[in-house]
Amino acid sequence: MPLNPKIEQFVADNPQGVLTTYRRNGKAQMSIVTVRPHRGGIGISITEDRIKFKNLLRNGDCSLLVSAADWWSGFLVFDGRAELTWSGNTDAEELRLARREIYSAMTRKRTDDWDEYDRLVDDDKRVAVILNPTHIYGTAFKPGWPPPNAPI
What we know:
Layout: H1 5-13, E1 16-22, E2 28-38, E3 41-47, H2 51-58, E4 61-67, E5 75-85, H3 92-107, H4 114-124, E6 126-137
Antiparallel strand pairs: 1-2, 1-4, 2-3, 3-6, 4-5, 5-6
């Protein structure tokens, strides 16, 4: 589902989140991540050597909590499925471009040295993740949201 512009703005204004993936035994694994609205979903950059990647590779179902900076004036939870673009399912050129696209979405800028960036993220084994939400909920939808003087 494409994100409502207010939701996109909330995520852009609050780029920290907690990603929940599921271990082999079904228990939740939570990780702090940086997020941005991207291609109708939420863009996240992770690495191939982390548990969250292994969990998503086995089971793409996940949830993401994005909270206002003060933790009290609103939050959204995105339930959905992760789309992974990584070295095991993507050719080198497509992966290079996907990593650049996620970097630009995450940082809202371009690097001065793309060749150096490509080398660093290749060494880091970066994975471009798009969380495609199927359900969104949270206090950001309550009446009176956003709160007075909110940056939205």
